[in-house]
Specification:
Blueprint lengths: L12 H11 L4 H14 L5 H11 L3 H9 L11 H16 L1
Helix pairs in contact: 1-2, 1-3
């Protein structure tokens, strides 16, 4: 899969923007990691989780990718439920290959 599978139809503006930004990161690896996660989860995120996700979207690709793939330890200020879900989601996708 190389692009979004979820339509932004039916999403509020905030979620549509996050979905778009998840698929347009800057490096393809992060497009796939965040884009796939957003396709699956963006509609279910709570208000608090959306705030966390918005913070994560702002981070540099290399830093965030290292945390998600386990290459670097996640700093405490970013080690929240959404990042943990994203990491587990990525791990599950990798295990399915």
């Amino acid at each position: 899969m190389t692009g979004p599978t979820r339509s932004s139809h039916g999403l509020d503006l905030r979620r549509r923007k996050l979905l778009f930004r998840s698929w347009h990161r800057g490096i393809r690896e992060m497009d796939l990691v965040m884009g796939r996660f957003a396709d699956a989860e963006i509609g279910r995120l709570t208000e608090t989780e959306l705030e966390e996700y918005e913070r994560l979207v702002e981070l540099p690709d290399g830093e965030l990718l290292a945390w998600i793939t386990g290459g670097e330890r996640i700093p405490a200020e970013y080690d929240g439920p959404v990042l943990r879900r994203m990491r587990a989601f990525h791990d599950n996708l990798a295990a399915d290959r």
